[in-house]
Amino acid sequence: MSTITALSQLDPNRPYSYADYLTWEFGEWVELLGGQYSVFSSPGKSPTHQQVVSRIGMQVAERWNDPAYETWSLPFPLILGYEELENSYNLVLPDVYVMGKHPPNYLDDRGWHGVPAWIVEVTDARTEETDRTAKFNLYQYFGVREYWIVSPDKRQVVQYVLDSNGRYQLLAEKSNSGLAHVQVLSGLEIDWDEVFA
After folding, report:
1. Its pTM surpasses 0.85
2. What residues does the Putative restriction endonuclease domain cover (predicted)?
3. Superfamily covering domain 40-195
4. Which residue among 21, 24, 105, 192 has its CA within the 20 to 30 Å range from the CA of 181?
5. pLDDT tens per residue, the chain (197 residues)?
């Protein structure tokens, strides 16, 4: 296989693995959802999006400390699952995620490998469908215990928690203000008055 040095060389009709991704030599960020690549443009995110992501990340860093976990935010890659590189087809760039620092999760120079406890996606018009469908299904499949979708335009957060059957259940839809508790991480709460200030 020839070296891929430009996004235009990728075939939209074939699945790509994480092993393929490691050979690419172009500058654009991409996500792999079930082997299908999706161009990710962090500079294209709005100032509001970036503010919301930063404020959530700062609250977690300032108000919650559990040495068994690490908090990461955009754009630090997450390779979902525990498959060998050539059999891994899911690489995402969540806005915020909290990862347990225990095996089989592990960190290398290219990102975290494994399954986080909690993921937050801050959605916009360009990403809303992906966040609510493809990523919802992907995170549910891999067993991410809690998933939040934050909509700055609506000033809303939707919280899903994984049930005992491995299915997401809607926990809450919260608008504008107040505290939201992360159910799977004891003591962690987000103040939406500050996030949406």
Report:
1. yes
2. 20-191
3. tt1808, chain A (3.90.1570.10)
4. 105
5. 578 999 999 999 999 999 999 999 988 889 999 999 988 765 556 888 889 999 999 999 999 999 999 999 877 899 999 988 889 999 999 999 999 999 999 999 989 999 999 999 999 888 899 999 999 999 999 999 999 999 998 899 999 999 999 999 999 888 867 899 999 999 999 999 999 88
